[in-house]
Specification:
three-stranded antiparallel sheet; six-stranded antiparallel sheet; alpha+beta; 14 helices; about 375 residues
């Protein structure tokens, strides 16, 4: 099994959603032999077949644990494992502690990937899907960002940082808008193509204005402060990865953490929440930002970047970018409805952003 390399696997109608190939299950059993645990049962909880990752819940003689097969490059996984250890051991954050192997390591390497065992925190429950729940999520996110400051990755780890990539990412959004336009023209007979062509200019212009504003903002000044100063973003934070335990909010699934300006996570949480509401609500947005600020103070300069990032066509880009892979399938009636919903929601965004634009003028 030493030469086995874990690859993504195919899931179709004939396979269970929790299907994991036999050779990976066999590797999991071998990995667990590196731990001083007596495993009573093992159950697949979630899989990432397209990337080659999985999570199992273990019932052991030392209580419930999780076993994770990390799908990223081992050097990248070392970065996130180091972050998890730093948050638990140094900062005492409510993040699941890593269980050490028999020889005191954080992980086991098998199949060209890193595996690790962590404590399974019980009980955990999602917060309520209302404003109060959103505020709890935002406060916990701010706390996570504050505690992640000062993290120095292990020497062998690759540095995962998005701190300097904002202009390039904004530029990519602008470039892809032209791709979307050309694809819609090439597949003009498809139901969603005309709707996409009707709105693409407006969203492209939003992205152009966003990049112009970013280039004229404090962004370049802020990133000079460096990775350790700003700390980590989660990159996939929301109702499933921030959950309430007996002693407060826990943040789980840290596999994708990276250095970045912290308000990127907050922006994603706000735009995703507004998309779920199908409209932008000024009270929700204000209260979410305030709750975050209580745990990790936002300066006027950082607030300016948050406003710029909120003004980007984030939901449109996130939902439409799949068109480049299979346009003849993607540009269907369902996508027509999706575009109409996004446009309606976006139109309610601008009065909200205008109203809150100057909220942080007095903040030092």
């Amino acid at each position: 099994m030493e030469k086995t390399v874990i690859e993504p696997w195919i899931v179709d109608e004939s396979t269970d959603e929790f299907f994991v190939p036999d050779y990976i299950n066999q590797l999991a059993e071998e990995v667990l032999q590196s731990y001083d645990l007596s495993v009573k049962s093992i159950q697949v909880i979630t899989t990432k077949p397209d990337k080659g990752g999985a999570i199992w819940k273990l019932e052991t003689n030392l209580g419930p644990k999780s076993l994770k097969l990390l799908h990223r490059r081992p050097t990248r996984s070392l970065f996130s494992l180091g972050a998890q250890e730093y948050l638990v051991d140094v900062q005492e954050a409510r993040v699941p502690p890593i269980v050490k192997t028999k020889d005191g390591k954080n992980y086991v390497e098998a199949g060209g990937k890193l595996w690790f065992v962590a404590e399974w925190i019980e009980p955990l429950a999602p917060v309520t899907k209302d404003l109060e729940g959103a505020k709890q999520l935002c406060y916990a996110l701010g706390e996570f960002h504050r505690l992640s400051k000062g993290y120095i990755p292990p020497e062998q780890a690759e540095i995962a940082s998005r701190l300097h990539k904002w202009p390039k990412n904004y530029g990519k959004v602008i470039t892809k808008m032209d791709w979307f336009r050309n694809i819609a023209k090439a597949y003009e007979e498809m139901p969603a193509s005309s709707y996409l062509l009707d709105v693409i200019d407006e969203f492209e212009e939003q992205a152009r204005r966003g990049l112009e504003r970013l280039n004229q903002s404090s962004y370049f000044e802020l990133i000079k402060l460096g990775n350790a100063y700003w700390g980590l973003v989660h990159q996939d934070y929301g109702w499933s990865n921030g959950q309430m335990g007996d002693d407060g909010m826990w943040i789980i699934d840290l596999d994708g953490v990276a250095f970045d300006l912290p308000i990127r996570d907050l922006r994603k949480l706000i735009t995703g929440t507004m998309a779920d509401l199908y409209r932008w609500d000024v009270t929700w947005v204000r209260e979410m930002i305030k709750a975050y600020h209580e745990a990790n103070p936002i300066t006027a300069q950082l607030y300016e970047i948050l406003m710029i990032d909120l003004s980007m066509p984030n939901e449109f880009y996130k939902n439409i970018k799949e068109v480049v892979y299979e346009p003849e399938i993607f540009l269907n009636e369902q996508t027509t409805q999706l575009i109409q919903t996004i446009v309606e929601t976006e139109h309610s965004k601008w009065p909200v952003l205008e109203e809150i634009q100057d909220d942080w003028k007095e903040v030092e």
